[in-house]
Specification:
5 helices
Length: 105
């Protein structure tokens, strides 16, 4: 999880360790969200077979969803609920649908 956290920090262009606790929570929530959506998560996100990075799409989905959680941390109250809700990006929805059918060893 540490390598995944460091990759997420690089993806978000975050220096330092001030956000590590929040980012770790977002990563855990992201992985749980994807598992509940039917995506089988790999035990090694960095597996390579020859030159092929086997689970790069899984890492991309994790980065995209964790970024969505990170960037949309606003408080929603009853008066702002219609304005404040930001749906998950369409490209991520498409990626999740594809990953549901990927066989993970």
């Amino acid at each position: 999880m540490d390598k995944l956290l460091n990759d997420l920090k690089e993806y978000l262009r975050i220096d330092g360790d001030d956000e590590n606790t929040s980012l770790s929570s977002f990563l855990q929530a992201t992985i749980l969200y994807l598992e509940n959506a039917g995506v089988t998560m790999p035990s090694d996100y960095y597996l390579k077979v020859g030159e092929k990075d086997v689970y790069s799409e899984h890492r991309l989905a994790v980065h995209l969803l964790a970024t969505h959680f990170y960037e949309n941390r606003n408080v929603i109250n009853p008066t702002s609920i219609k304005v404040a809700q930001i749906p998950i990006p369409y490209g991520l929805q498409s990626l999740i649908l594809q990953l549901k059918w990927v066989y993970v060893e």
